[in-house]
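Entry for flavin-adenine dinucleotide complex. Fields follow.
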Amino acid sequence: MAQQLPRMVIIGGGFAGLNLAKKIDKSRWDVTIVDRNNFHSFPPLFYQIASSGLDPGSISFPFRREMRKGSVRGVHYRMGEVMAVNTEQKWVETQFERIPYDSLVIANGTTNNFFGNDELLKRVFTLKSAAEAIRCRNEILDRLERASICHDEAERKRLLTFVVIGGGPTGVEMAGAIGEMKRYILKREYPELNVDDVRIILLEGTDRLLRTMSETSSGHALEYLGHLMVEVRLNTLMESYNDNIVTLKDGSTIYSETVIWTAGVTAVPITFQGKQPQRGPGNRYVVDEYNRVAGLEDVYSLGDVCIMPTADKPKGDPQLAQVAIQQAHNLAKNLRKGSWSIPFRYKDKGSMATVGRNRAVADLNHINLYGRPAWFTWMFVHLISILGMRNKITVLINWIWSYCSYTTSLRLLMHPNRYPLRRRWGE
Ligand SMILES: Cc1cc2nc3c(=O)[nH]c(=O)nc-3n(C[C@H](O)[C@H](O)[C@H](O)COP(=O)(O)OP(=O)(O)OC[C@H]3O[C@@H](n4cnc5c(N)ncnc54)[C@H](O)[C@@H]3O)c2cc1C
């Protein structure tokens, strides 16, 4: 009888989980990915879903299709949202089943952080999943359509006030994308609307945008958003958001029915029974330099959900796709060797953000790029990183089409159908 391989369960098939599944030695491990979605997606382009630039299918990839192919062949997929882990009896539990493990890898990423004001969850639009991005897209399109048939000027202006909170890459890219709609699409496709009625306000709590990038990049991003008629307010913190009124720390207010929150992340919560993992800032799992979770045996954590404080980087590495991918590769190498001999060191290849057509900033290792060269670099890097040839081609065609036509054909407002009634899975 064939010997049973040790079972490795990976929670989350994002950049970290899927890359580990690719690199792990499948002749030594029986690997299962558990993910609440049946597809891998590409968060850096969620803002393009929200702004109708891309459709969700072109940046998502079904796990089961991926698992037919070479590097992930033999890995199993199970749909489910992991809610509990028992570290003594070694199982994880989803809303559907209990799955035993010999080794566990927690790679389930992060979710929105409302910094204690969890009521915001019900009121703001967010971009942490493809589903959230679609809701955001529908909302923006709904506002434009409703404003087009509204005869009351004050009401129309209210409908067309968009507030984006957080001046990091996601906030900047999202505000820029709505700014592009205002600048290029409104006049042609919404002739009933006056461009000046649309307000896009980006709020950032510190004194500059894109704080993790160079000051020059921050300056360029600010300038580009200005071209796209986005009002940027630096050193501005939101105090509360009730009854469609954004109240700022200085007491002033902005009326907006569409607030897009990109301001913070926290670990996706999982309840632990038995021995508890050590947690760091943002509820992230503290790991050593081999990605082993402090305080637990046979449990590893990768990507956004973990933090690896070291002497030179007490706050760990940034929560970026490259960090998640490199950690996954490093863990696979150590497991393959069967010894903890290769500590993780992040090789920073640079960071970039785009602020609409021909406008981007890129801080690369030896060179900083701005404007069109940065924009083409940004497109190239994202294109090669998307999973699946069909997806790459679809995205490229969409981008070329929008580039030449200054528009997209994806501004479809598809409301979900109410019937037949279904209990939401997971409840
Ligand atoms: C809008 C946005 C823009 C970004 N832009 C950039 C960028 O330009 N460049 C960059 O480098 N990084 C960017 N990032 C960050 C980057 O996406 C993350 O660093 C990266 O996705 C981390 O990979 P991960 O595998 O740790 O987590 P994720 O990619 O988030 O994957 C987590 C997986 O776990 C699943 N999951 C979550 N909870 C559970 C659960 N309880 N049970 C089962 N499955 C679960 C999710 O469905 C998901 O598939 C961006 C992120 C966002 C949200």
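NOTE: The chain is about 30% helix and 20% strand.
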